[in-house]
Amino acid sequence: MTRQLPRREEQASVVVLDLMARRAISTITGGPARSVLGIHVFHCPDVVGIVAKLSECIASRGGNIRSVDVFVPENKQEFYSRSEFVFDPTHWPRDVVDNDFIKLSKLFSAEKSIVRVPDLDPKYKIVILASKQEHCLVDLLYKWQEGRLPVDISCVISNHQRAPNTHVIRFLERHGIPYHYLPTSAGNKREAEILELAEDTDFLVLARYMQILSGRFLESYGKDIINIHHGLLPSFKGGSPSKQAFDAGVKLIGATSHFVSQELDAGPIIEQMVERVSHRDTLQSFVQKSENLEKQCLVQAIKSYCELRVLPYQENKTLVF
Questions:
Q1: Among candidate residues 261, 256, 266, the one with its CA nearest the CA of residue 298
Q2: What's the rounded Cα separation, in Å, for the pair 14 and 10?
Q3: Single pTM value for the model
């Protein structure tokens, strides 16, 4: 994926507006400004002056741009950007931030314009679904406990029963996170109950949930679902990808985090990680290395999603800023 800098005719405006923002912040009276981080992502038809207007919107309110990442596909009149900026919410209230970016969105007929202020906005609410294997589930829970995942976990759903004295159940009870055991069968995937439990969530995470969600479920839920696949997609789809890779004699193994779609293991890819293997590896060492990659890959995908780094691109791709 290529990344393009703002075009030359916009760069001078960006510099001037950035200086304006810095001066505005430095002249605020009553002590140092209480700056918070804002994130904005934008997708609209490509025209001259978008970066300048984005910068003007932030600078005019005393905000200070920290970074701007822009992508304009070759031979396509489309503009994508992700901006980070700091501002004082006492001088630029949160609702006014939204209104300002809505005006900007209308000005450029944007297809997507999202602004998020992590310190002021509610955390993303998620439900984690897992089956028997729990390395990804455990890793997510501990990362959440350490404050390294900007989410609130509403509950954990599993088609595998866990005894009351297991470390996962003890952890969940200690933190007040409900655990719902929903055994599945070929004729009943318990999707109605899952939908009810996930009703108020922002997205779902499949942490090695070994059940295929139906197209009806995906349509009813209507929000993003992030899955981890223990293989380097698009190779080795379906079951036992580690064994498939081992039997194929690959020299690199990987893990893939992707959005769930109606086609199995074919949704837009968010994150991939790889590790080298050799003829000295056994199937057991393949699996161990794969599990480590899965944990890292899933956490990174969730963080990227929450930080508004992931944008849909074309029919089945993503941009990850």
A1: 256
A2: 6
A3: 0.85
Catalogue the E-assigned strands of the chain. 36-45, 64-71, 78-87, 112-116, 124-130, 151-158, 179-181, 203-206, 225-229, 252-259, 269-276, 310-313, 317-320
- Cα 253 from Cα 283, distance rounded (Å): 12
69 is catalytic: no
107 pairs with which residues across the strands?
none
Work out the end-to-end distance of the chain between its first and last CA atoms, rounded to an integer number of angstroms: 10
Asked if 81 and 42 touch (Cβ cutoff 8 Å), the reply is yes
Closest alpha carbon to 130 in 163, 155, 166: 155
The residue assigned the tokens 């009870």 is 173
Beta carbons of 254 and 274 less than 8 angstroms apart? yes
- Identified catalytic residue from 88, 202, 265, 281: 265
- Cα 249 from Cα 286, distance rounded (Å): 11
How far apart, in whole angstroms, are the C-alpha atoms of residue 232 and residue 251?
A: 12
> Taking a C-beta distance cutoff of 8 angstroms, is the pair 104, 113 a contact?
yes
Q: Give the Å distances, CA to CA, from 123 to 108, 126, 144, 268, 303.
A: 29, 9, 12, 24, 12
Longest dimension (CA), the chain: 68
pLDDT band at 129 (very low <50, low <70, confident <90, very high): very high
Give the whole-angstrom CA distance, residue 81 versus residue 265: 28
16 has a pLDDT exceeding 50: no
Label residues 113-137 b or e (16+ Cβ within 10 Å = b).
Answer: bebbbbeeeeebebbbbbbebbbbb
Whether the CB-CB separation of 63 and 85 falls below 8 Å is answered with yes
For tokens 């028997």, what's the residue? Answer: 132
